[in-house]
Amino acid sequence: MKADPALPPVSLRCAVLTISSRRTAAEDTTGDYLAAALADAGHVPQARALCPDDRYRIRQVLSDWIADPAIQVILCNGGTGFSHGKSTIPAVMPLLDQVVPGFGELFRHLSWLDIGASSLQSDALGGTANDTLVFCLPGSTGACRLAWEKILQPQLDSRQRPCNFASAYRAPSD
Question: How many CB atoms within 10 Å of residue 170?
């Protein structure tokens, strides 16, 4: 969506889902980072949850949030690595109406510059479901910081030119 820098920035209503069968809320430093980064950027925290690495429980939480008109952006972290127990991407894919293929590609490129060939084992996904932006990120705080600073923060800023994701959520009266 094209940006209009003359308009005030759009404040998006966001949710953060940490997917982990090992972490507790007290140990969720990645979820803490994402929630703080969203708030620091002027977005509104609407919901936050910790969910075990189980595709059906992930879908349950995400389906509720996707159906909630008060949530415009969902950031998931965790459960994206290369192993048999990771279920985030298989859980999320059937819920998406549209995939943003460049998101995962750009994340892996930036990750390659940061951690080299290990980036191959880290999946990332972006898309929309019911007009809600959904992004799936690795569980490490470093990976989420990379995705936030290099991709998500600018793309969730309605002033980012020439285009961004946030401008689509500008109220019609703006």
Answer: 16
